[in-house]
Amino acid sequence: MVLKAFFPTCCASADSGLLIGRWVPEQSSAVVLAVVHFPFIPIQVKELLAQVQQASQVGVAVLGTWCHRRQEPEESLGHFLEGLGAIFSHEPWLQLCRERDSKFWSCKATYQQVPTSPGAHSEDQVMLIFYDQRKVLLSQLHPPAALPDHQAGDATASACGLAAVFDTVSRSKALFRSDQFDEGLVRLSHWQSEGVEASILVELAKQASGPVCLLLACLLSFISAASTCRVFKLWPLSFIWSKLSTCEQLRHRLEQLTLIFSTQKAENPSQLMRKANMLVSVLLDVALGLALLSWLHRKDRIGQLADALVPVADRVAEELQHLLQWLMGAPAGLKMNRALDQVLGRFFLYHIHLWISYIHLMSPFIERILWHVGLSACLGLTVALSILSDIIALLTFHIYCFYVYGARLYCLKICGLSSLWRLFRGKKWNVLRQRVDSCSYDLDQLFIGTLLFTVLVFLLPTTALYYLVFTLLRLLVVTVQGLIHLLVDLINSLPLYALGLRLCRPYRLAAGVKFRVLEHEAGRPLRLLMQINPLPYNRVVHTYRLPSCGCHPKHSWGSLCRKLFFGELIYPWRQRGDKQD
Amino acid sequence: MTCAQPVTGTTGIRWQKVLYERQPFPDNYVDQRFLEELRKNIHARKYQYWAVVFESSVVIQQLCCVCVFGVIWWYMDEGLLAPHWLFGTGLALSLIGYVLFDLVDGGEGRRKSGRTRWADLKSALVFITFTYGFSPVLKTLTESVSTDTIYAMSVFMLLGHLIFFDYGANAAIVSSTLSLNMAIFASVCLASRLPRSLHAFIMVTFAIQIFALWPMLQKKLKACTPRSYVGVTLLFAGSAFGGLLSISAVGATLFALLLVSISCLCPFYLIRLQLFKENIHGPWDEAEIKEDLSRFLS
How many CB atoms are closer than 10 A to CB A286? Predict the structure, then answer.
């Protein structure tokens, strides 16, 4: 069996000494964590190991000896090193040796007590794998996604081995705490032995984050307590809140901020990553919002917008009037029922008339409203976009009304026609058995049913045309709103921190490792360099996606077409309650 | 066929048509008695010519109904027939028919169905009210649809009415509901072409009388007083022919030819073709369960 020895590259130039690490018997691999230099007192080494073991719950032990020959080979050192095996007994006992010019390495693993041939030292083949301790310590290994069956067994076994190595290194931080400037009893060599890596800014931020979090958490709890006030739960208000996407977005942000500034510590790396992602997303959102705010308030753009808004709304209403007048004639040469056509057309025209007068009533206040709405951009670009979506919804309320009238009328006709068509054939829908049964109707039922059927059949094209036109208008509005929601969702759910990490520090998010052969000669141990494979971008997004507020439509295309055909109402939003079932 | 050779049994073993005994014959062996069980034409019936002619009168009646309806509609459309007059006549005939309906079988059918006169009155009220209420809608219903489309639709629907009508045959295609609905649909289509809403109302009322009520009375007349039924049929056919003659001579001639061929030629042909019938039955037929299974079901 091949024995794998994981050796940190930073220890390659260390002085001779003892190898400290963990032995993983399942993988028959030895993970070297540090080198203890001469001189040392064995008891103190053992004490240090016991402390580390208690702190990190990793079975750290002395694995063998490390010999770095700078001058002529000294026979005595070799014997001494062999003798150490008797003090720190370990199975197997590793003997790593590096020649002067760093070209030649030798490695032996010996078992002192082998039952088959007692007394003799048996040797194993050793594979030397170098790893960058800093990168492995900081990186987070992502287990591979599910593979096809025939590869799965192999892949999971190797993934387990890798995970053990990564886990060992990341958990033995206690070992790396001492550096060469410490006046410790034992001198170690590892990645931080040149000096502890830290930054003043980070330390200051760590110190300051506690009180800041506490303060902000208090503030947020006040806000959330105010928002759950009983006044806002009354019937019409709660209904309006649930329909406005701005409220949904604000609630979503409030939840996120509460989570970010909660005083509890993140338990695992994924939770920490989640918090960081949320924080970065909120910061970016606010930054974009401030940029928008500064753009809006320069050169009186709000006033220009307000002046443009009323003519646009007027224009839309005018176009709708033209459309209705076209429909009331003979649109595209279709055979419409004239009476019904006139009735529907006048009804809708009256609506538009009402709408225009409403807009003109509102027009003096629009600038002030827009100015206040513009201020909300400092809460974030997403909030501003949600408000824009709501404004669009409010300004196209007449289209929505038309659509609802048209859809209800059309739905009524379709339902009536389908059941009357069954009556026409002498059948009926059996609700108990969920099927169409034959049924004998009375004469008067048949007569009235057929009369209604004839009327509905001849009136259907008129209703269907109105429905079609207003549905197309509605779909246009829904598409615009859907695009805005998509943008908001993108900002909400994109894991920006994780993506930034992947861009600047690819090793932090590891998908796996790859090995590069350093030396492969007969009679010498195989030397490999372990490099970290970064996680692909799509998996980063997939793994660290933040939950969005769920305001986007969840229809499939088929069900959407079905709903459109049967005249059921379609909405761009889904309520929170619907999402769960 | 060598395989079918019997083992010329000197012992005189008779072949039996059973599978549970081992016999010295090949599997496909049959003996002389095989064709003894052959039967021919056991379900064929001998028809009497005049009986068939009498039965065909149902078809004649229905054809005449459609014809009379078309003729009346034409008169209304041309303005030759005042709607009041048609309404009055229809009402009088309906009342007569209503009285006859009970008189013919002495109230037997009414007692059996348990239908009260109050229910009849309610039905009549429903017909009148709904038709009257909807008649302005009906008038403007098909304004924008072209007349040819309406004619084609009506012809199609009336043909459907004739095809699906319950002439007494026991077939899957028969559906009296569908047939009646198609007739009403056609009448509504045609009524919407008439000049005023009163015309439409009276046309639809007339359609109910002729397509829904008249066949019910006919059925009863045919069952109870066959003689008067023949008379009524002849009278009805004659009036349909006369009405059609006043519109178009060619149409009337064709209609008369159709009636004659259905009532005289078709029965004659049916009886002639019965002679060529040759159905064979025997033990090779599929098994048929003759016993009444209802006692197992209960």
Answer: 18
ipTM of the complex: 0.81
The total number of structural domains that make up chain B: 1
- Chain B environment of A342 (Cβ under 8 Å): none
Q: Is the pTM of this model over 0.80?
A: no
CB contact under 8 A, B141 and A444: no
Residue A542 neighbours by CB distance under 10 Å: 12
Please give the Cα distance from A253 to A259 (Å, whole number): 10
- Residue B211 pLDDT grade (very low, low, confident, very high; cuts 50, 70, 90): very high
Model confidence pLDDT, tens digit, residues A158-189? 667 777 777 777 777 667 766 555 656 667 77
Among B125, B139, B179, B184, which would you mutate to test the A interface (most chain A Cβ atoms within 10 Å of its Cβ)? Answer: B184
Instruction: Please give the interface size between A and B, counted as residue pairs whose CB atoms are below 8 Å apart.
Output: 75
A147 and A264 both lie in a single domain: no
How many Å from the N-terminal Cα to the C-terminal Cα in chain B?
A: 52
| Subunit contact A443:B144, Cβ cutoff 8 A | no
| Pair A168, A248 in one domain | no
- Chain A stretch 429-468, residues whose beta carbon is closer than 8 A to a beta carbon of chain B: 440-444, 446-451, 453-455, 458-459
Tell me, yes or no, whether B228 lies in a domain.
yes
Cα atoms in the Cβ-side hemisphere of radius 13 Å centred on A482:
14
Question: Under an 8 A CB cutoff, do A455 and B137 touch?
Answer: yes
Does B27 map to a domain? no
pLDDT tens profile A231-263: 666 777 777 777 777 777 888 888 888 877 776
